[in-house]
């Protein structure tokens, strides 16, 4: 979502956190500051015939390397891990601005290939930056971890009954236990603050006094944490689809029900105008009635879709993910998904299309475990979650009254409720004057617009660039709005923030 927060690129997490002190004066920060990073040796990125990301990076002129960093930053001489980096170098060296570190979000998404996408959005400006794709610790090529889960994404709705919720609580407990069995000695060091410390070692290894930074979704939270822990070490900062830095953690989706409902209603209007194509209802109300009937049918008996059984704990997640992007191709793909669900609800055989097949494989099989495992580890390692399942059930029941479809999804428990280790540090309280450009759409269903406004208030030197009237998560370089890309590029070119908070339509 892009987990708590669903990014359109992949169904992983993204949101943001707050509580405690800046690390500038902590022992961990002092220890990290004394550990000099080793020199970097750059080499081709491709790692075998199936490595399309590496091949694309090499074709574009990028090179890759590994940086050795401490597992525990308070013990620089102890156990080490490796971080994987890519660098797409500036070609206009005479007008080079500096180095920009990138992060896709998740948490848990590999960022190694991101310089290609970001460079395309920057257009000619990319020639003036060294663009760095950094796989965060235990993600992608950076000493990757996988808990060996029998399912991928843990995000589920609580469903309609307490018995279903209790069963799911047992599943989440099992997921947490599998991580503990494999990585009990490593879990305390999988968190955002240690990732921020890694970024500063990358900065030093690259020989930069300051770095620019661009993060999407959870990547925005990571960037904000970096500015708090390492003040004065950033140049130009873009936080795309940022969330409220006081809400990152295992309950970060609470309160986003209205945004999810608005997005579904917007898609229903779109689908109703195309009833002859999709047959889901000639009015928005009838389309939504079709959706509700699908949920009701899945509560009685799981829907058979290809090789998968899909129940009322997964259907709301699929609806939330699918309706969160208002671009025509995304809405058409989601309409095809709802078509398939509707056929299954009526007992007809269904072969899922590519989009639905991908999400079912990711959520219901081991295929999603390598991505979802580090996502849970980071989330649960950042902030302690309530352990009593009744806490979540009571929240679900309260929300269900007003939000019957998405309340049980947005308030449900995660593996964090049973996590075997406590966070080593308090979450970071974001409150500093770092200049930054925050980008947000008014209809974001994951890291909501209200959340981006909260980030804007926390970073007092920031400006908020609003994309109005749009349902999307991940704007710059993804959504394709020329106004947004022009304003972000102007800031990256000059370093001058807008004098007021701008709006694009």
TrEMBL record:
Specify the domain of life of the species encoding this protein.
Bacteria
> Would you identify the family this protein belongs to, as annotated?
Belongs to the peptidase S33 family.
UniProt protein name: Alpha/beta fold hydrolase
> Keywords, A to Z?
Hydrolase, Signal
Region feature (Disordered): 32-58
In the UniProt record, the signal sequence range is: 1-31
- UniProt organism field: Actinomadura barringtoniae
The residue ranges of the AB hydrolase-1 domain are 99-276
Q: Does the keyword Disulfide bond apply?
A: no
In terms of Gene3D superfamilies, this protein maps to:
alpha/beta hydrolase
Q: Which PANTHER family match?
A: 2-SUCCINYL-6-HYDROXY-2,4-CYCLOHEXADIENE-1-CARBOXYLATE SYNTHASE, TRIPEPTIDYL AMINOPEPTIDASE
Domain Peptidase S33 tripeptidyl aminopeptidase-like C-terminal intervals: 412-504
Q: Which GO terms describe its molecular function?
A: hydrolase activity
């Amino acid at each position: 979502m892009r987990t708590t927060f669903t990014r359109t690129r992949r169904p992983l997490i993204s949101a943001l956190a707050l509580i405690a002190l800046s690390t500038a004066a902590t022992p961990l920060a002092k220890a990290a500051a004394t550990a000099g990073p080793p020199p970097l040796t750059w080499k081709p990125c491709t790692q075998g015939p199936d490595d399309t990301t590496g091949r694309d990076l090499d074709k574009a002129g990028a090179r890759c390397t590994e940086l050795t960093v401490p597992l525990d930053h308070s013990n620089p001489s102890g156990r080490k891990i490796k971080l994987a980096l890519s660098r797409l170098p500036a070609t206009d060296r005479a007008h080079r601005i500096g180095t920009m570190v990138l992060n896709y979000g998740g948490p848990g998404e590999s960022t190694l290939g991101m310089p290609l996408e970001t460079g395309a959005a920057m257009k000619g400006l990319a020639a003036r930056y060294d663009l760095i794709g950094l796989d965060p610790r235990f993600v992608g090529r950076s000493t990757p971890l996988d808990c060996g889960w029998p399912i991928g994404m843990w995000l589920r709705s609580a469903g309609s009954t307490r018995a279903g919720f209790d069963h799911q609580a047992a599943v989440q407990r099992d997921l947490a236990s599998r991580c503990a069995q494999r990585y009990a000695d490593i879990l305390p060091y999988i968190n955002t603050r240690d990732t921020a410390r890694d970024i500063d070692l990358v900065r030093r290894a690259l020989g930069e006094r300051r770095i620019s930074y661009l993060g999407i979704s959870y990547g925005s939270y990571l960037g904000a944490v970096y500015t708090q822990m390492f003040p004065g070490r950033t140049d130009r900062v873009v936080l795309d689809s940022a969330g409220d830095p006081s809400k990152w953690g295992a309950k970060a989706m609470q309160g986003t029900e209205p945004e999810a409902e608005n997005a579904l209603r917007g898609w229903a209007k779109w689908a109703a105008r195309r009833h002859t194509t999709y047959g889901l209802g000639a009015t928005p109300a009838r389309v939504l009635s079709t959706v509700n009937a699908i949920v009701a049918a899945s509560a009685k008996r799981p829907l058979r879709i290809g090789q998968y059984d899909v129940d009322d704990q997964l259907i709301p997640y699929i609806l939330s993910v699918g309706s969160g992007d208002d671009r025509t191709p995304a809405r058409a793909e989601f309409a095809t998904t709802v078509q398939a669900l509707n056929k299954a609800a009526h007992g007809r055989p269904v072969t899922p299309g590519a989009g639905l097949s991908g999400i079912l494989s990711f959520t219901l099989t081991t295929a999603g475990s390598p991505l979802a495992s580090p996502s849970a580890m980071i989330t649960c390692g950042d902030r302690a979650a309530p352990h009593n399942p009744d806490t979540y059930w009571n929240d679900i029941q309260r929300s269900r009254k007003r939000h019957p479809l998405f309340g049980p999804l947005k308030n449900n428990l995660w593996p964090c409720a049973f996590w075997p280790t406590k966070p080593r540090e308090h979450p970071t309280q974001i409150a500093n004057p770092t200049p930054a450009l925050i980008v947000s759409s008014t209809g974001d269903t994951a890291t909501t617009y209200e959340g981006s406004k909260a980030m804007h208030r926390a970073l007092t030197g920031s400006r908020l660039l609003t994309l109005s009237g749009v349902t999307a998560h991940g704007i710059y370089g993804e959504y394709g709005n020329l106004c947004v890309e022009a304003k972000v590029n102007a800031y990256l070119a000059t370093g001058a923030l807008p004098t007021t908070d701008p709006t694009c339509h």
